[in-house]
Inverse folding.
């Protein structure tokens, strides 16, 4: 068995494309260092979509930016390893990472207007990447770019190729971003809340597009969102984050129908159910603790209905409680 193959709980081989181990990302502030990502570990297999969910500030996007080595000062990746294609990305130089970005790995950002250069045409920006990673001339790059714009459903791709980002609608800008990300056939795609700024109809189209392109290219996808409804549509497995740590990880349907962590269960209960009428949606009492003042023990203790003295003294490890279902909790629910 190769180093990139492991066995899952059913005994079948999983071709692991991305392996993250004990990832730590620290921001050095005037009042001291804070760990925005604190010891996160996971694997993603070929053709699989891992969804990462959690409230704002839980570390979802910082995790993804860390994988892409896009953390800027005063932040730094302070520990761990990220293995892709047999290489530890955290040990690569910036020049080596530039070869990886857009080539073996790519990212779709939340807001394309901030990710696309407003003073360059869409075609110019796509050409630049295609020429660099696919080693083709300008004519071939143009043909490839237009082919990708057509593939993601942009009408009149030859015309849009010549447009500037502000000349496209929000949905078309996001499609152009997806076309750019996939133009060099990456093995690994990170999608950081790619549908948040779009209306519901366009959101559904973008999700369907990402799924169809993933199947076509057999890509490995890391999908970041705060929306469990989106996760139920697109992810094979889900990792739930809280205060920079992983609190639960399982196959999507197992996690949504029988969560083990009190936080995950509370998130699911807070989702409005179609066809049911309630006076008031359930909320999670309290607030996420400041990363400057994380409590000793479990970070969820101040909001948890099952908290005990043990939770306040020790941080629960991420352990497998069911086949393929991990949770970091001393008092899991639904067991």
């Amino acid at each position: 068995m190769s180093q990139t193959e492991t066995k899952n709980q059913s005994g079948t081989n999983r071709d692991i494309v991305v392996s993250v181990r004990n990832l730590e990302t620290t921001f050095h502030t005037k009042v001291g260092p804070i760990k925005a990502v604190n010891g996160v570990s996971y694997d993603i297999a070929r053709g699989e979509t891992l969804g990462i969910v959690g409230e704002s500030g839980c570390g979802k996007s910082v995790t993804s930016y860390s994988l892409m080595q896009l953390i800027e000062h005063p932040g730094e990746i302070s520990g761990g390893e990220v293995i892709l294609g047999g290489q530890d990305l955290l040990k690569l130089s910036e020049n080596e990472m530039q070869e990886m970005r857009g080539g073996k790995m790519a990212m779709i950002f939340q807001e394309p207007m901030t990710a696309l250069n407003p003073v360059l045409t869409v075609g110019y920006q796509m050409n630049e990447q295609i020429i660099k990673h696919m080693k083709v001339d300008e004519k071939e790059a143009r043909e490839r770019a237009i082919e990708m714009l057509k593939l993601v459903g942009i009408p009149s791709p030859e015309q849009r190729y010549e447009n500037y980002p502000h000349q496209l609608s929000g949905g078309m800008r996001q499609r152009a971003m997806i076309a750019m990300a996939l133009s060099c056939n990456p093995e690994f795609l990170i999608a950081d809340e790619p549908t948040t700024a779009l209306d519901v109809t366009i959101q559904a189209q973008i999700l369907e597009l990402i799924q169809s392109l993933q199947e076509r290219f057999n890509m490995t996808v890391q999908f970041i969102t705060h929306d469990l409804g989106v996760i139920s549509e697109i992810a094979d497995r889900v990792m739930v984050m809280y205060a920079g740590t992983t609190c639960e990880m399982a196959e999507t349907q197992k996690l949504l129908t029988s969560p083990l962590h009190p936080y995950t269960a509370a998130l699911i209960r807070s989702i409005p159910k179609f066809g049911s009428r309630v006076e008031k949606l359930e909320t999670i009492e309290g607030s996420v603790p400041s990363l400057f003042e994380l409590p000793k023990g479990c970070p969820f203790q101040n909001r948890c209905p099952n908290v005990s003295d043990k939770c306040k003294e020790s941080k629960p490890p991420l352990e497998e409680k069911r086949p393929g279902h991990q949770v970091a909790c001393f008092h899991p629910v639904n067991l």
